[in-house]
Design goal:
237 residues, alpha/beta, two-stranded antiparallel ribbon, 8 helices, 11 strands, 35% helix, binds zinc ion
């Protein structure tokens, strides 16, 4: 004879379901990396929303621009890391890398990373400003100590220095579009800039972001991880 509670428990284990909250223990179908570029002060609104939903993101900052008008200070960036978010490099001055000499590119990438690690931050990945890079740029990113980098396109399978990235979120990007990206499998990297209502082409409305994060946080088979951590998970798997 079956003992129903025992059978239910067995099924729960087989399905990889822990408890009643729908947390799936097996490898997720989709890993979402939420990335915020340029160290913009308006992104602090997103930090509150992320905390509310227990989500962690990656913030790509240009060390040479910290503290400028509309940008976060070094202290605010350190606070993000202390709150569990990941910090990534975005070059010293937000340079369009392939237009520079190798020497200048190295300075932009390596000196930026050195400045950020000097603040006590782990800086595992780079986001190429404007998504612009070529082979030598990617080689320099590795030389400067990065384990991966994000452009702004579909990426190249198996190339950690050309990670797949969904089209940047703009003012007109709808909640349905954001949800559509997450319905794909594998690594889904989303790129945000300003977080404010209609404050520029590259912005997301805090209301849309709040609705999206609330939805994202409870999707079965979907895990949200900072990008560097998502990469390490992939290597381990
Ligand atoms: Zn940027």
């Amino acid at each position: 004879m079956f003992r129903a509670p025992g059978l239910a428990l067995l099924l729960a284990v087989l399905l990889g379901v822990v408890g009643s909250c729908g947390v799936v223990a097996e490898e997720p179908r989709t890993v979402v990396a939420l990335t915020f570029d340029d160290g913009l002060e308006s992104q602090l609104a997103a930090v509150d929303l992320l905390r509310e939903h227990g989500l962690r993101a990656t913030f790509y900052v240009s060390s040479g621009l910290l503290g400028r008008d509309g940008r976060m200070t070094a202290g605010q960036v350190r606070d993000l890391a202390e709150a569990g978010h990941e910090i990534g490099g975005h070059t010293l001055t937000h340079a369009r890398l392939p237009t520079l000499s190798l020497r200048a590119q190295r300075r932009e990438i390596c000196d930026d990373r050195r400045a950020l690690t000097g603040l006590g931050l782990a800086v595992p990945t780079l986001a190429y400003p404007y998504g612009a890079f070529d082979r030598s740029t990617a080689g320099l990113a590795s030389e400067c100590g990065y384990t991966g980098a994000r452009g702004s396109g579909a990426g190249a399978s198996g190339d950690p220095f050309n990670l797949p990235t969904a089209p940047a979120v703009v003012r007109t990007t709808s909640l349905a579009t954001l949800q559509g990206h997450v319905r794909r499998s594998g690594l889904v990297t989303l790129v945000f800039h300003e977080v404010c209502a209609s404050c520029g082409e590259y912005s997301v409305d805090p209301g849309v972001l709040a609705a999206f994060l609330g939805w994202l946080a409870v999707q079965p088979g979907v895990e949200v991880r900072p990008l560097g951590e998502a990469m390490r998970g992939k290597e381990a798997g």
